[in-house]
Structure prediction request, 66 residues.
Amino acid sequence: QAIVERIELMAEQYSNNFPGNIREGVCVRIDGPSFTPKFLKQKSYTFKVLEGIIKESKSDIEEEQG
Prediction:
């Protein structure tokens, strides 16, 4: 199984630490020859949908007030 497939699968699973909650995503740390590691994040589909809904709600409220 390729690493990308494993990351996508892990991002879509429920949280092990908080059963019943969706997982925001998976963060991968890559250590290389430099002293600064790289971090890559894969957000779950469900979280991306919910994040979009939350952003739309905030902008609607701000537009109504302004």
About this structure: The mean pLDDT is 80. The first helix runs from residue 3 to 12. Helices lie at 3-12, 45-65. The longest strand covers residues 25-30.
